[in-house]
Design a protein that fits this description.
The structure is a homodimer. Chain A has seven helices and 34 strands. Chain A is mainly beta. Chain A is globular. Chains A, B: Residues 250-649 form the Copper amine oxidase catalytic domain.
Chain lengths: 675, 675
């Protein structure tokens, strides 16, 4: 059977793409970075989907092309490796596109083997070993080399492909491999040339506090003497874990309410969608419909950036693009039953490639489950006393990534009232550097002795490719604005105006919660029969702080997407990444959403894309240490005159029979079953 | 045993207060409105709590005074009823305070018997019956009279005590008493004088659309002919309820993790607090501590206002203060097991009084339960692959009110990382008026034929009386602000400044999410030993839209509290209500938070109170009909350098053993137990 056009590449397809690429070369080494589905042109897919939803797909139906994007280095002769990208037609078994990307223009995304090399090269470096020697680590401490992308290059770096490492020490004396090394940051950042595999320098970090100079060594000879253990694995907690938390389980005796068929087709409570996984974006959802009506063509995490605000060089180079930089695939968590979710869980696997291009299955990278989120709707008739109350059941598609110290859980959440929530939970260990004893800093907060957690931001971009009852949509900004008392039009001063502004040209737009500014994605060719207004969905832009870095600095210029809360652009095939295709070691965002918006395309009644930007300015608290409690951010998409009534009005209001009531005083001695 | 000073009045105490009041009068009728605990002066309570938490309370301990506030009308002779308030000392069994509140100054809060009278008087009114006759209701329709507070009086109303009623028709032909009468609004508002119990006029409402005049009859002779049924009770849904939602239950086989002792002392996961219920504020929490350390002295919903924005008179008088107006007690839902919450639930009862002052128990008005809210914190060690993940368990104290058409669920939520969330869920049926066939309006949205849901706002105020490690606290505004690239201080442009501003004088303050503005409540006499910063809690003001009505109009002047997102005032005994003690039929907020702030009190290192204001500008969607899906609003209080690490770091990361995994395709035929 031909794969569905909205399915990710299989193991076999991935290996086939590898083979076709390799067949094109001889006498060189090919080192692979990523192999991804190159999604077919939307026009081909929508033609197919129209037939599919009409039940008219047969063996003869013309299917969209099936393409793979393969990115790889060609290493041969005396030349530096060359970075190539090929498009492989898997049905025709041939290369149909090819580009050599010069390092003078862009760097290819990072591959996990580069990080492995970095760790080894740093550890083997005599220069590094000498610097470590100088730090006079206490007995029993080992050195931990944590690989990081380099951030933006300085002028002196030229076009070299560079990586940096943060260095920590780990107390090995517990004999527990998971003792927390982040409690012992060392003030060194080695920098490696990825081509020569050489340490080209080791930056010695300032460790001072308020009023100290931005550069220069100030730390004590035995700098770790004032640091302290900061454990989080339960067996290393000095006082153990709390003992009074009783189990709380979720049971679904009749199984889940969702079905998963055809490999990736999810159906649940009138919703249908397809889920894929790829190493650039994680989980991606396609062809999202409710009750058979199209809502979104595609929903994905497009990119994010995490710039650090410590003014001392080289900390300006601590700026990750955790999606664009390329390490995401290997950073996705393999989710384990009963820890990451409750209830009945369906896991999806993904496909990753090693440096030799061989595809391997990575297990359980997406999980699917239902959750209860409190009351869904309720009304009590005051005349009869009759209460009707429903629970709000939600379907969650989740993936979680670990990026060295830090983790993000991304949830696409669907509810029975046809709402969509994109949720990001930030957790993990905040990024820290050494600080001298007794000092405090304007650049962060001391979260443990000798440990400065630097101020930073997380800015996410969610890409929303709408298809509100079709592909020709319009975005309308709506604000609720005060109106002066006026004898004729507002005699009692209570009226306020809803002002609507069509977004006519592609643009970056901002949140304005004081004006209750929301954006409606509407189909102007369809009218709600009840209200007479165009059918649509409402996007409420989270009014979070945008990028703080000086607009003229590199940190800011390479993340232009982070300058507005919402971008509206005209759809273009393969324009998926807000920060551009090449963020690794970029100095400027190229080919990202800012460039797309700058085309000044007409976006009235067009196939368009919305890019929602929101985030968290994270000035760490002591309570974020050693592992921070989740910070939850949410983006909401809700129907606005899309339906003719509350879509959840038909949710049954059955009593839940597993609930129990406890009477009188409740003491620890009372177990539930007795009540 | 003497009642705890932080316990609500018992049935016996309430009846005792009634008796003592009645004993003070003869030859008059006393009609009671409310009997509430008059909380003792904070100085007395804190002295007691200090002893209590030190384990030093004995039978001899001097206890705070035990007082009741009784509000009632004295009806006698030829005079109009007089509104009185008395303070009763329950231990001394005597009246210790008394005030006659003149209707020239304020109106006493409404009592449920006034609403009952209103319904009867309207129904009996020949004038009303004649107006109904004119409307030529279809066969089988009955008239529904819905009582409302009057809103603010117009100049012509003088100081009369007035009530208004919205009028609907109900299709009785289904024989189901719960058929939805809001689908048939009638354009009449009768107004009753509460003293004379007479209908003083009946307003005939404009029913036009865009461009139509603000007053004057335009509706068709048989105006309901274009309306349609809008049912929500399951047995009346034309197509029934959806059948594919499988049960999802929460099980706690070992019982809850909380204990409830001494009637109202809740202990859970290092938290302790006392819960009370009263008819003015609903659930109130007192003496909130974590791990024995004081955080809040008191937490409550202080007030809310719901102004409607339809410019046509008399809709400016649709403005409820659902707490201050006084009807709350009888509007609190009696929560039923398994519908309003899942899991193991503890219910608390409340005490209400009837017009004769007799106390009755109202069952299950507060519920207490635990809930799972996803991942609490997680980290995977990239070197070892070891993942440690905890769930986020929460404790929820909930009460729900129904105000005619509308409901609010208020949740005080506590998490294991020592965070507090105050959540409001708005649901129920939006308030509607009649609109002529085929018309649309600038004042709202047509949600069903002939039914205009008017634009409106919900503005809530949460009163937070902090006690961060003691009662002398300071509020510090913190903003993250951009800093220009500067060779010396910000050489790479990535630095941003955290600017701190102490709030020195009582004031109204605003959210500024573009500056990441947050407010820290700190104790400046205690320093976090790790960070060196004052211990504190962080309040993130929800940056929602404030009141839109013209500042010079009555709707706005009687809700001054809704003009700022956060008020900081100096604590004063019994200053509890943001909108003032008397909101019913007020023209101006008096004695509310604006007046408290205007004292210009020194609030540096003082006993202070924070009042957090947030809300929802609600321009109804068709999807809000007939019962709207919950709109969720949240206020967050989180520790900020209050603890020396993540307080949830000791939460166990046990696998949940009730979860199940489904393999391969999932189809409806697969029941969970087979998987």
């Amino acid at each position: 059977m031909a794969p569905h056009p909205l399915s990710a590449l299989s193991l076999g397809e991935t290996n086939l793409a590898r083979d076709i690429v390799k067949d094109g070369y001889s006498d060189v080494v090919i080192q692979f970075r990523q192999i991804l589905l190159h999604e077919p042109p939307k026009s081909q897919v929508t033609a197919f989907l129209d037939l599919e939803h009409a039940g008219k797909v047969t063996a003869e139906t013309l299917r969209p092309e099936r393409l793979a994007l393969v990115t790889y280095d060609v290493i041969g002769g005396s030349k530096f490796p060359e970075y190539h990208e090929s498009i492989i037609d898997l049905r025709e078994r041939k290369r149909v596109g090819h580009e050599v990307v010069s390092a003078d223009t862009h760097h290819g995304s990072l591959a996990i083997h580069e990080f492995e090399t970095l760790v080894q090269v740093v550890q083997d470096s005599p220069l590094f070993q000498a610097k470590i020697q100088e730090l006079a680590l206490p007995e029993g401490f080992e050195v931990v080399v944590e690989p990081w992308p380099y951030g933006a290059p300085d002028a002196a770096d030229g076009r070299k492909r560079l990586f940096q490492a943060l260095i920590f020490a780990r107390d090995t004396r517990s004999g527990n491999a998971d003792s927390n090394f982040y409690a012992y940051p060392l003030p060194l950042i080695p920098v490696m040339d990825a081509h020569t595999k050489e340490i080209i320098r080791i930056e010695e970090l300032a460790t001072g506090g308020k009023g100290d100079p931005l550069t220069g060594k100030t730390h004590a000879a035995r700098l770790l003497d004032h640091n302290a253990a900061s454990e989080y694995v339960p067996e290393l907690l000095p006082e153990g874990t709390r003992q009074d938390l009783k189990p709380l389980g979720v049971v679904q005796p009749d199984g889940p309410s969702f079905s998963v068929t055809d490999g990736n087709l999810i159906q649940w409570q009138k919703w249908s969608m397809r889920a894929t996984f790829n190493s650039r974006e994680g989980a991606v959802l396609h062809d999202i419909r409710y009750d058979g009506r199209s809502i979104l063509y595609r929903l994905s995490m497009s990119d994010m950036t995490v710039p650090y605000a410590d003014a001392r060089p080289p900390f300006h180079r601590k700026q990750a693009f955790d999606f664009g930089d390329g390490g995401l695939g290997h950073c996705v968590n393999n989710l384990a039953l009963g820890c990451d979710c409750l209830g009945v869980i369906k896991y999806f696997d993904g496909v990753l490639v090693g440096s030799d291009g061989t595809a391997t299955e990575t297990k359980n990278v997406i999980c699917l489950h239902e959750q209860d989120n409190g009351i869904g709707w309720k009304h009590t008739n005051w005349r009869t006393g009759r209460a009707v109350v429903t629970r709000r059941r939600e379907l969650v598609v989740q993936f979680i990534i670990t990026l060295a110290n830090y983790e993000y859980a991304f949830n696409f959440i669907f509810d029975q009232a046809a709402g969509i929530t994109v949720e990001s939970r930030a957790t993990g260990i905040v990024s820290v550097v050494h600080i001298d004893e007794g000092k405090t800093s304007d650049y962060g907060n001391v979260v443990s002795p000798g440990v400065l957690a630097q101020n930073h931001q997380h800015v996410f971009c969610v890409r929303i490719d709408p298809a509100i009852d079709g592909h020709k949509n319009t975005v309308v900004q709506e604000e609720s604005l005060p109106v002066r008392l006026d004898k004729r039009t507002n005699p009692n001063g209570n009226f306020y105006e809803i002002r609507k502004t069509e977004i006519a040209t592609s643009a970056g737009l901002d949140a304005a919660p004081h004006n209750n500014r929301i954006f409606k994605i509407q189909n102007h060719s369809k009218t709600n029969p009840i209200s007479g207004r165009p059918v649509g969905y409402k996007l409420t832009p989270p009014p979070t702080q945008l990028l703080l870095a000086d607009p003229n600095c590199t940190q800011s210029r390479r993340a232009l997407f982070a300058r507005h809360h919402l971008w509206v652009t005209k759809y273009k095939d393969h324009e998926l990444y807000a920060g551009g295709k090449y963020t690794l070691q970029s100095s400027l965002e190229v080919g990202g959403v800012a460039d797309a918006a700058a085309r000044n395309d007409d976006v009235l009644d067009q196939d368009l894309v919305l890019w929602s930007v929101f985030g968290l300015t994270h000035n760490p608290r002591v309570e974020d240490w050693p592992v921070m409690p989740v910070e939850i951010m949410q983006l909401h998409l809700t129907p606005a005159d899309f339906f003719t009534r509350n879509p959840a009005i038909d949710v049954p209001s059955n009593k839940d029979l597993t609930s129990k009531q406890v009477m009188g005083d409740v003491t620890e001695a009372i177990a539930c079953c007795k009540l």
